[in-house]
Amino acid sequence: MVLTNNIGIMQGRLSPPIDDKIQAYPVKTWQREFEIAKEIGYSAIEWIVENPLEENALMSDSGIKEINKVILDTGVKVDYVCADIFMQQPLVRMSKKIEIENKKYLEQILVNSKEIGAIGVEIPFVDSSSIKNQLEIEELISATIEAFKLAEKIGVKISLETDLNPEEFRELLEKINLPHVMANYDIGNSASLGYDPAEELESYGQKILNVHVKDRKLGGTTVPLGTGNADIKYVFEKLSKMRYEGGITMQAARGKNDVEVATEQLRYTLEIIKHI
Questions:
Q1: Which of 91, 159, 167, 218 is the most buried (most CB within 10 A)?
Q2: What tens digit of pLDDT does each residue of 87-112 get?
């Protein structure tokens, strides 16, 4: 069985919500999240980088030392880093000032992610950071190419998450044409967009670095696993047949008790994997 992958959870899901947001960096409780993750059976936490950067432990030398200590103490890793800062100031439609900042931030995130043993850094191009046209593709490639070369040099992979259709996403990856620049596949987001998972996995399945597990209604928001339009079982079956060996990160709907919800989400996912 290939899908014996260790399963991680998105940072912030094991802490009380911050400002009613579904996803945010838990500046005051991130250490405790590693302890909880270990207790309930998760092997990794996908780290979030967002503004304000000065509050994020990954963005300072002392913070990196603390992260590595917590990883060592708990055995819970950080395999992937989610660069949500590029939702706040996208790598498309940039002013010159933002472009300069973004290049600096991306390179710093890559270098610092390597310092904590991360496999890859995810760059989101969804919602406010969606890619709208061919000119924006050229813009993002121009803005990121040096960072992409740096990632290859230091041994960090990059995964792009987009809301492009399967053919467009495949064409984007082919245009970038770097083996370490891959795809993040979000099961729930694709269901919300009405994309066919068979077509997606056929188009770029071999380039998937990490999978986000969530469920969403068609054209709607995140809902509890098994209650939306995402065919999680089918996706895992296809990934297994493809000999997928990348990451799996829970990014599902929250609830009144986030630890209980995260525990049940892990059980739900492992049960699907067990019967494939």
A1: 91
A2: 999 999 999 999 999 999 999 999 99
Contact 91, 125 (CB under 8 A): yes
Q: Per the omega criterion (within 30 degrees of 0), is the bond before 52 cis?
A: yes
Which class is domain 7-274? Answer: alpha beta
Stated pTM of the model: 0.97
| Torsion angle in degrees (nearest 10) through CA of 11, 17, 19, 20 | 120
Domain ranges of the chain: 7-274
Residue 59 DSSP symbol: G
pLDDT score at 181? 98
**Token reading at 68:** 């590595």
- Per-residue pLDDT reduced to its tens digit, 44-74: 999 999 999 999 999 999 999 999 999 999 9
CB crowding 81-112: b at 16 or more within 10 Å, else e = bbbbbbbebbbbbbeeeeeeebbebbbebbeb
Number of CB atoms found within 10 A of residue 51's CB: 14
CA 207 to CA 88: how far, in whole Å? 26
User: How many Cα neighbours within 13 Å face the side chain of 95?
Assistant: 4
pLDDT value at position 276?
85
